[in-house]
Protein 1
Amino acid sequence: MSSGVAVSCEGLVHIYRAEDTEVVALAGIDLQVAAGESVALLGPSGAGKSTLLSILAGVLRPSAGRLRIGAHAVESMSPAQLQRMRAAEVGVVLQGASRNLLPYLTAYDNVRFAQRAAPRGAELDAPEEVLDLLGLESFAREKFQVLTPGQRQRLAVAVAVAHSPGLLLADEPTSQLDHDAREEVLDALAQVNAVRGTTVVAVTHDPEVSERVRRTVTIRDGRVGAEGRSGEEFAVVGRGGSLTLPLDVVAALPPGTLVRVRLQGDGSVLLEPTGEGS
Ligand SMILES: Nc1ncnc2c1ncn2[C@@H]1O[C@H](COP(=O)(O)OP(=O)(O)OP(=O)(O)O)[C@@H](O)[C@H]1O
């Protein structure tokens, strides 16, 4: 049995540097995920979702900003400390089941192999229990080739949670699966979240994932552009009062438009374009 860890991102910036260019992939992400919460990260291609996931996984180091994963202040950790944190606290499902699994091992041995990376003395569920959690107990002796695509992906989740991490990160966990297999995988993630209390953060383009997860976070241009709660989209007030407007509003307000912002008596806020621009 494990329990979830909280994640806190404050002003996270990530810049990829090549010889003569810089790409600002994350431009100040503010995001709080409570322990045991389940969140889907959405957003257009190139918005910065994978970069954020890699930083949460401890694979990439943020260029600036603060990141807390449970009790760890990640931005100031040494590579060895990061490695230990990942081994103890973070499970990752990479895109494509085969990238997570050793095809010549059985389902049972894949889980057992993954547990070898856990810190010494860690309290781990037996491989049978991990497979049971993912509904794979009757496939323990099967190898990758005979499993269906949905079972393979469930096994990838089993391998990611084999060391009982408090945070499970999944990159496009339902991509290239048919409807039934997608349901299987979403059930598996929900099961890990419900039974173990594991915090789950999944990057996805799949509208079914967003429908199944109560909270969605849309990344736009390296920032949190919007949040969804039970299917309804909201703009998010950022630090210093910044607000990313919905795309249909942006289309009506070209950059540089001067807008009167008035707080109304009933607590609502009126945005009134003046017709003037800078
Ligand atoms: N290794 C890299 N070197 C330089 N630039 C990169 C690198 N990886 C990503 N980028 C750039 O950083 C930005 C964010 O990329 P990222 O892959 O995080 O976006 P994404 O939202 O995950 O996109 P997708 O949905 O297509 O995977 C993009 O402009 C991308 O071109």
Note: The mean pLDDT is 92.
Protein 2
Amino acid sequence: MMQDDRIAALATPLGESALAVIRTSGEGTLQALSRGFSRPGTLQEAPGNTIIYGWLQYDESRRVDEVTVAVFRAPRSYTGEESAEIYCHGSIPGIQKIMELLFTLGFRQAEPGEFSLRAFINGKMDLTRAEAVHEIVRSQSRKAQSLALNRLSGRVFEEIDRVKSRLVDIMAAVSVQLDYPDDELPGEDDDSGYVRSLIPMDTVQDAVSGLERLVSSYRSGRLYQQGARVALAGQTNAGKSSMFNLFLKEDRSIVSNIHGTTRDYIQAPVVLDGIPLSLYDTAGLREVDEIIEKEGIRRSGQVIENSSVILYLVDGTNSDKSAHAFDEKQLERIGELNLPCVKIWTKTDLPQCAPAPKGFLPLSMISGEGFDRVQQAMMEALLQGERLAGDGDLVIDSLRQKQLIDDALDGLQQALTSMEGDQPLDIIAMDLQRSIRSLGEITGEVSSEDILDRVFSGFCVGK
Ligand SMILES: Nc1nc2c(c(=O)[nH]1)N(C=O)[C@@H](CNc1ccc(C(=O)N[C@@H](CCC(=O)O)C(=O)O)cc1)CN2
Ligand SMILES: Nc1nc2c(ncn2[C@@H]2O[C@H](COP(=O)(O)OP(=O)(O)OP(=O)(O)O)[C@@H](O)[C@H]2O)c(=O)[nH]1
Ligand SMILES: [Mg+2]
């Protein structure tokens, strides 16, 4: 990607809307834009952070749209470059015509994430903030958006920077010793004590626990951003579709006492505790020869295998022994797949319902009794020991960041082991250096084209 040319992109969805925003950026943007503007002088002389009204046009007789243009002067803009935002009418052909005009004026279509890439290159934001911009746009729940806002305001950056600067201080002292090994070198026998005086264990331990906290927030970060797939499974008539409707608070899936009512699985989105869930009602499991139902069961099997958590329902009023054996076989298979599973005993409102066996949560779809407990158990299964994040918590949501923190932790743990094993100072220094490098990569202080490509290519065009 070149940084010295002018880029343009639609920043809002392409569709019918009251207004649409087209972003432009790069040195010479206002000069270029003014050649297609009804008031070229006004636009060129406009101070930064002002809005100019006028027409986009090839000339007086070939007008393209009536617009307002927001003017940003370098370095006071999102990208840090001279920029302009065009507020036009939100019509698809209108937008297309404006983009064509911009191309003839010397702008090119921006790559995905290119505005944010430029902001990073021009020192407007570090990589954790740039990733947060993208995470905000993608957030599917209010909680996910709040957590991404914390990151945009620099909370991840600050935490990483805090840990890193302590390690850098240690490295500085270590480097001096490595460069001038003869200075104040104590006796050979007392080497480890001297290494420990240069590298305070508790500072390294503190760095480890800070980084471990961040890594462990990743699971809930993922959960808030990506959500989870929840499959309702069990034999026919167990109450899966009833439960599906209970989740959605809507009569969405057909419920009947005829076994095999649901054949095609049904998917619906639902947000629970700020976590966007994809809920699947599946075909009841049973041995059948009928070809359509058989296919429905096969497809449901795939949905179940690909879910993050399974809610397995058993009809508590069914006293049939072979039915119980069938359930046990299914649960065994789920166990083998290593999928988290919540076992639910349904129809507890009916007098013929047997008491829920050990490990099963009782539930009545009619009264809703037990539903809170089931939802809670499902969340616990999804979080696997993590606690739910609060709005103000520091939670990471980038696999890239998580992997780099893992690398940094690895280096620190290695350093600690080497210290315990009284390894020479230069070996320990290499481990510390590796950690520092990984931390620098998280914020983008250390970066390469590859890294930047990986971060920004997933963005939307116009971001
Ligand atoms: N019109 C508009 N609204 C927007 C954005 C945008 O790019 N344009 N944003 C895009 O994500 C978000 C806000 N983020 C922004 C970040 C920095 C600057 C900016 O111009 N910063 C300058 C000037 C700051 C100042 O005047 O004090 C700077 O940092 O130097 C603008 C928006 C959401 N709303
Ligand atoms: N009393 C009572 N009836 C229930 C309960 N849950 C489900 N039912 C009834 O049980 C029958 C089957 O419920 P569904 O939700 O259709 O069962 P399913 O698991 O989706 O069945 P298939 O689609 O055939 O696999 C319906 O008549 C429901 O009204 C419950 O908790 N209490
Ligand atoms: Mg059903």
Note: Residues 53 and 453 are 37 Å apart (CA to CA).
Protein 3
Amino acid sequence: MLIGVPKEIKNHEYRIGLTPAAVKEFVTHGHQVMVENNGGAAIGFTNEQYEQAGATIADKPESIFEQAEMIVKVKEPQPNECKMLSRGQTLYTFLHLAPDPTQTELLIESGATCIAYETVTDRSGGLPLLAPMSEVAGRMSVQAGAHYLEKAHGGSGTLLGGVPGVAPGKVLVIGGGVVGTNAAKMAIGLGADVTILDRSLPRLRQLDDIFAGRTNNVFSTVDAIEHYSARADLIVGAVLIPGAAAPKLLTRDNIRAMKEGSVLVDVAIDQGGCFETSRATTHQDPVYNVDDVVHYCVANMPGGVARTSTMALNNATLPFGLALANKGPKQAMLDDEHLLAGLNVHEGKVTYKAVVDALGEQLGFSYTDAKTALGG
Ligand SMILES: NC(=O)C1=CN([C@@H]2O[C@H](COP(=O)(O)OP(=O)(O)OC[C@H]3O[C@@H](n4cnc5c(N)ncnc54)[C@H](O)[C@@H]3O)[C@@H](O)[C@H]2O)C=CC1
Ligand SMILES: CC(=O)C(=O)O
Ligand SMILES: [Mg+2]
């Protein structure tokens, strides 16, 4: 199979779909790989390294989109990329369609087979291709929060760890999954006072075991959100209903009641955000204020540590990517229900229920079962 790896074009996005090491795996399995000129250069993956791994270098994205049978990316395709996709081509990347009608419409029109990293599943009910980026974003969320709590960066001037004689800052994590757990680990490491809210009792039990008394783990209700948010210095939004638009858990009233100079980091912004006042921002211009509360809502946080993130992402995407290339996308998905769960759009049909629930009525499409769409 001919695999194409274009350079990412989202604001300050320096990750790339395949590392040179991953290219070598595809080439060893008998595939051909085209990588866009300097696609990984910003994070130290040079054209020479890609060539040594067996790739050819394409001078422009158009050559890749015209020829490749499978496009491997990181971020959701931007409109000009969507327009270059065609029927018979497979797109393997993050999509986040539920909050994004424009992209959804363009992918339907393209006729391409679009597999979303964030909805591929594993045997234990996890999301193995989202998990590494959630680990990164969870860890970064507290780093970003601590930075914006500094007075010169617009915050209240609170040190999360406190010092002997002064109480630590309060961190509230809403959603105790992968992002939430990693945020909590960093916040504990800094010495903060950490509360995690989740609405899953089994998950709260696991958090109790993981953190062994070092966090308060509380069942998530409207009342709990109201109570803990009013006291928090930093709130990390980390909820997920897979593939669906994020529920707005923190209301404008909750935000008004927060202390001046507190910080919100809405990691769930890639699924639309879980705070009422959230709107997506970029690494270039990451924050804005509402009601004297700093909002950090960067939709591609791992892009900020692109070298670590690219390697972590490739560790997870490579085995599924090889299966897609070795067996062909259709057979690979029919053989593996977890990879099949990643299929969101195929030949103009939307095959992911939560995307249909979010956008079907607005855009006029209905749900097609993934297996049926593939003719399996
Ligand atoms: N902005 C960025 O750059 C990045 C964003 N993300 C996003 O972060 C979000 C979280 O991802 P993960 O931690 O991997 O998901 P996860 O599935 O591991 O965890 C989500 C948690 O939210 C909980 N939850 C769901 N509804 C809730 C509610 N109403 N109240 C409290 N808890 C609730 C679930 O029980 C679960 O424990 C996702 O939207 C993901 O796409 C992930 C990586 C990077
Ligand atoms: C998951 C996601 O949105 C990212 O890694 O950018
Ligand atoms: Mg206020």
Note: Residues 176 and 206 are 10 Å apart (CA to CA).
Protein 4
Amino acid sequence: MGGVLSYAVRGLTRRHGVGEHSVLANDGIDLDVRQGEVFGVLGPNGAGKTTLVRQLMGLLRPDAGTITMFGRDVRAEPDLPSRLAGYLGQADLALAELPVATAVGTTARMRGLSRADARSARDAILTELGLTEVAHRPLSSLSGGQRRLACVATALVGDRPVLILDEPTTGLDPVARRAVWGALQHRRDTAGTTIVLITHNVLEAESVLDRVAVLEAGRVIACDTPGQLKASVSGDVRLDLAWRHDPPTDDPTIAMLAGLATIRGRRWTVRMAPVAAREALGRLTTGAAFAALDDFSLATPSLEDVYLTLGGASRDLERT
Ligand SMILES: Nc1ncnc2c1ncn2[C@@H]1O[C@H](COP(=O)(O)OP(=O)(O)OP(=O)(O)O)[C@@H](O)[C@H]1O
């Protein structure tokens, strides 16, 4: 990885709209993205993630601040990101009428590959992402997940040194999601590709992210490795309980947990010290309450817990 920075972002500020309804979507963001790392951008809806990555791609001009890419000022060379980075936006309608193979192959040609190289790069990525069977169908005729996967293929083809992906696995089934995470990891490991990733899928992302920036209301409220972030916010563990039917709240352990739990229907989540959690779980699994318990798990802090501890809202963080 060395000290090479794929991106250095300083004081990045961008407001959408004007007047009283305008929104300060990015508010003085400072970030470094190192070459060859998988850099995650995490945060609730409306935190400013898409606004940030669209500026990294040169698709949106900052109001203030600077972005340098491999040491070069993006304002002075606005086409630099589109030459060096593959981008997957939230919606990709431009290629909708093309067959998948044509969309991917044409993109490879546009990225400078010879006809023969474009063909083999196209075939390789279609195989890698499990798209061979739908290769000759127009994107518009595919299911939402297949279409998303085909768009991932167009972002990845041509081996750009940087990939910027806005929620690449949204709508994908588990097999397709695994193929995408595998493809990203493979490029990072073998080609030193820098990957900037917006994701709501916290648990999946944890396994691939080298560092993560947590955005809230346009600001970076934390930026570190998942491990360091987790270590810095809490020594607590998370006890998840799923009840078969109404739990017997006259049981003292259950009454104690009820007072601490975040309750969603029959699912309880309790954050507590490891010793207390183990004791509570011991009492639950040997006592009368066990009959009412459908499932339980004890987990060390996740990125989701980091995010919650930092004050974010949990509503849109997917856990699968
Ligand atoms: N074109 C626009 N005009 C006006 N406001 C906008 C525009 N684009 C984004 N915003 C606002 O800017 C803020 C940041 O939006 P952005 O899309 O960057 O958030 P996000 O973190 O990517 O959200 P999500 O997770 O929902 O995709 C939001 O309040 C949004 O409503």
Note: The two ends are 30 Å apart (CA to CA).
